[in-house]
């Protein structure tokens, strides 16, 4: 079927103005935030009600057309790169917060609600939605769920999956599947909500999502500790956990990142420091004060060369500026920024950082490492130029070796960015052939024609 | 194949002494803790290593023999009642705690570890495993995961699923499937760990499980508040949540339960009270003291006729005795105790209790209601005699109506007991035909011969 004929079929469901098919539209939706080759879809379809998702999906299935759901396209593993000639189903028109229930501490949202906007609406009611992926200013909640997005608060508050109580989604026949509940406890039927989380649009297309809310912390305090040795910084992380303090944020910047950030911001960071920890504790004011004092003492005892606790909101803000600027500072150094998220049990961070530094040296690459030290989720970031084929071949070898190190330390390929098409080739190494077969079998039964975001996660 | 020939086949894998097939053995494993008709298996097979689970499962599949995994048989929805002529796979020999990692806050356990023994081992290391289902003294961890068991701490600490980081399990071919990780963040592949939770042995047979641990609370305080009106008790629950206090436990006993408990324990409970709340807060000592004071004030303001805060460990113990005795006190009143767990958003508790009381009156039945008011998970408990067919027909009608009320209040069939065979017939009412078809399709692909605990959850 020609693209214009196809467009008419979809226009009958969502209206002609919600079917995009000019060349520039199609190129706009041919890539996401991962460093991968773009792929041009045949059409972009933008439902204006969640009910329209059903017939759109059914039509794709009837025509055997691959369909890739896209929220804001902030995906870092290629999960929103469409199949060539397929359909992009755009959810940004489905952005209503349907309910914020203050008595029962949940909210019901349409898939395309922007994460930060939702968190702000919730905060206005003096409630708290903790997941805070780096892309929260533009990312959508359904995208967060489809990727099980993480963020800085993973250690204390968990990740997106810890806040999803229920998901309604459409199957390939366009029928609505209901899973989960507005109740904290629900064991009615298979945990399809759990199965949908991190399924990257390959098992169903999300409609409304029920999210858990919590009361906000009453107080918080941010600190910075500077170390002349990365192992000492890791020792401080271990010491904090061993003291049974669970910071809401516990971030690490290595020397390379510190230098790039200072070069970018001129904020006065010590460029000879080998590691900086940025730490925030929250909770009851008495607990926050005690924990902050303990952390400052502990960092000094371990040999921090400088420790600062923010006394004002402005001081707190300035501490977090360093962390927020890590990725932009790295990204401006070279044309291509490959942001990895191999993750290890937190006690293995020193070994992981040593491993990454050895790999950088071996392949003559610039790799800066920052990330969520509290939950072992580091972001080794490779600075390169994708157009330089020789260099990029070394980058690909380095990524291979980074995964090998993470797995040898009982870690995982991806902490929060997803598998998408970027990492599916490594899946068998971490799991097993039988695990992939189990997954492929299940996928085949749910999506016999293979139209739901084909090629993602498990290939297939 | 004759049972004795079958026994030999399994004995070749697990050893003759681990295949039970005397009549008394078979009857022992023909029922669980649900009020349902027993069903006698052909054999009981008891692996002594998790590696033996693979060949046992494969043999069942080769022979087309239904296999039901059983831990302690504390299941309340018939999930561990075997298929007639099938195999019971007993996990109580697989009870090793393989690792408690204090640095990285996780543990790795074999499936048959007893919940309370695990919690105690963890506590010895000054760590905390919060899920506390009522059967924890004997229930197994794999059973808890297979049912997504809840307990008293759901409101603040969540349920079993919130503590499962990874599950290795065997598929019908006897191959080991690996899911999840030792890291807090992991998005590598489908969330098969999530899918396994609450799957009641129908999608795979669990081997080792990775569980999350947390630091224990530093302090706690228990309180009791007595009300002459159940709506006031519910108002107190709402008031506590609205004050942004999240108690670790927030339990309710209605008048019927109070009377049965007092009759059993002679502890001096006020038998004319219409509702008792048992509340415990935990956390930092300053927060605990403040929260306890606020709760006492709030309960008095709402009109509690009596409020007591436990000042000593003995006083705390005596408060909790009433709650612990609720089920035994009800169970001794009549020959049959039907313990339901329909769950509603917590603000709907007064409507739910009114509904249950109307149903009791209409069908001339004794129903006592107690349970986890904080998370809306109530246990209407019907006292009856199953041998009295007329009465039991009324009980079945009452259960139907209890579910109708829960669903009309946006609740769910089961908060923590599972669907099993007891509630599968109501599944479509809560979800949809398409939801069941999606589930059946998936199940069929994973288990083509239908050997994994057939008939549970979705029938089929």
UniProtKB/TrEMBL annotation, chains A, B:
Residues 37-216 form the FAD-binding PCMH-type domain. One of its GO terms (molecular function) is FAD binding. Gene3D superfamilies: 3.30.465.10, 3.30.70.2740, Vanillyl-alcohol Oxidase, Chain A, domain 4. Its cofactor is FAD. It holds the Pfam family FAD-oxidase_C. InterPro entries: FAD-bd_oxidored_4_C, FAD-bd_PCMH, FAD-bd_PCMH-like_sf, FAD-bd_PCMH_sub2, FAD-linked_Oxase-like_C, FAD-linked_OxidoTrans_Type4, Oxid_FAD_bind_N, Vanillyl_alc_oxidase_C-sub2. PROSITE patterns: FAD_PCMH. The keyword RNA-binding does not apply. Keywords: FAD, Flavoprotein, Oxidoreductase. Belongs to the FAD-binding oxidoreductase/transferase type 4 family. This is Probable glycolate oxidase subunit (GlcD). It comes from Desulfotalea psychrophila (strain LSv54 / DSM 12343).
């Amino acid at each position: 079927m020609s693209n214009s004929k196809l467009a008419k079929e979809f226009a009958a469901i969502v209206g002609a103005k919600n079917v995009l098919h000019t060349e520039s539209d199609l190129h706009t939706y041919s890539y996401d935030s991962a460093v991968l080759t773009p792929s041009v879809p045949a059409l972009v379809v933008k439902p204006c009600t969640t009910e329209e998702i059903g017939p759109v999906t059914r039509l794709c299935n009837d025509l055997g057309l691959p369909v890739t759901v896209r929220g804001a396209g902030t995906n870092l593993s290629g999960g929103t790169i469409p199949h060539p000639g397929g359909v992009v189903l755009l959810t940004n028109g489905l952005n209503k917060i349907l309910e914020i229930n203050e008595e029962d501490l949940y909210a019901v949202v349409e898939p395309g609600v922007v994460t930060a906007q939702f968190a702000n609406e919730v905060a206005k009611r003096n409630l708290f939605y903790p997941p805070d992926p780096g892309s929260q200013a533009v990312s959508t909640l359904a995208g967060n769920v489809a990727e099980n997005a993480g963020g800085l608060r993973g250690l204390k508050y968990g990740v997106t999956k810890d806040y999803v109580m229920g998901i309604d989604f459409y199957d390939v026949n366009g029928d609505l599947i209901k899973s989960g509940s507005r109740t904290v406890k629900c064991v009615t039927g298979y945990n399809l909500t759990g199965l949908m989380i991190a399924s990257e649009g390959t098992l169903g297309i999300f409609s409304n999502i029920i999210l858990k809310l919590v009361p906000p912390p009453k107080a918080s305090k941010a600190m910075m500790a500077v170390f002349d040795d990365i192992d000492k910084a890791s020792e401080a992380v271990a010491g904090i956990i061993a003291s049974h303090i669970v910071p809401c944020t516990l971030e690490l910047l290595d020397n390379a990142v510190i230098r790039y950030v200072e070069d970018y911001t001129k904020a006065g960071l010590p460029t000879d420091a080998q590691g900086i920890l940025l730490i925030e504790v929250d909770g009851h004011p008495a607990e926050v004060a005690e924990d902050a004092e303990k952390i400052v003492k502990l960092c000094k005892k371990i040999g921090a060369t400088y420790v600062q606790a923010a006394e004002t909101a402005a001081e707190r803000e300035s501490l977090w500026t360093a962390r927020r600027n890590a990725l932009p500072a790295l990204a401006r150094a070279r044309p291509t920024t490959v942001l990895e998220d191999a993750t290890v049990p937190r006690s293995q961070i020193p070994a992981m950082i040593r491993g990454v530094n050895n790999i950088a040296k071996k392949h003559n690459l610039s790799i800066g490492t920052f990330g969520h030290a509290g939950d072992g989720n580091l972001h080794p970031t490779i600075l390169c130029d994708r157009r330089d084929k020789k260099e990029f071949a070394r980058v690909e070898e380095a990524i291979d070796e980074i995964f090998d190190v993470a797995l040898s330390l009982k870690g995982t390929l991806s902490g929060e960015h997803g598998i998408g098409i970027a990492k599916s080739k490594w899946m068998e190494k971490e799991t097993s052939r039988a695990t992939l077969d189990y997954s492929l079998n299940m996928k085949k039964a749910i999506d016999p024609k293979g139209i739901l975001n084909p090629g993602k996660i498990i290939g297939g």
